[in-house]
Design goal:
The chain is an alpha+beta fold. It is 25% helix and 25% strand.
């Protein structure tokens, strides 16, 4: 789960400032696996771009609420690909006790204006979803706390501190 959370955060990337420049080509969907350190082979993964999934990225912002990215599908020669839909991705930051956390979310829209109008509602849904996921990760982490085994005696023998220095992983 921790690897999934780290991968989720790494996929979100920076919000607003520092995003990829406008009119660059990128692959929206990554068709690769990431080595999270738990791979027994410990092999590295090669990242490959899929030429059939290229998009031109344009960034728009109001410099306060967040950023909109318009991803226009393109063919391998860079010309527009009318067979695939244009995608709109919203980006914002939420403040947490550990600092600012970027969130990214897809906005169902047919135009840039419509995406801007739907930004707030889509951001609220993404924030709620992120809060639920963080709470679930927090609960899972809390349930994995190492608990000392009782009744074994400890410092000072049987009448001393409980736990005996032996740990039990639930």
């Amino acid at each position: 789960r921790r690897a999934q959370a780290e991968l989720l955060v790494s996929r979100l990337g920076p919000c607003g400032k520092g995003t990829a420049p406008s009119a660059t080509l990128l692959q929206l969907k990554s068709h690769c696996t990431m080595d999270t350190g738990m791979n027994p082979d410990n092999t590295t993964t090669e990242l490959k771009m899929n030429p059939a999934e290229l998009y031109r990225e344009e960034t728009f912002t109001d410099r306060s609420a967040g950023t909109l990215r318009r991803l226009t599908p393109v063919q391998i020669d860079g010309s527009d690909d009318p067979a695939r839909p244009v995608l709109y991705i919203g980006q914002a930051q939420i403040l947490t006790p550990m600092g600012a956390m970027p969130i990214a979310f897809e906005i169902e829209a047919g135009s840039l204006g419509e995406a801007a109008e739907k930004f707030s509602a889509a951001a609220n849904v993404a924030v709620e979803r992120t809060a639920r996921e963080l709470e679930e990760l927090r609960r899972e982490a809390a349930s994995q706390i190492v608990v000392p085994k009782g009744g074994q005696g400890g410092i000072g023998g049987p009448g001393g501190m409980p736990g005996g220095g032996r740990f039990q992983i639930p």
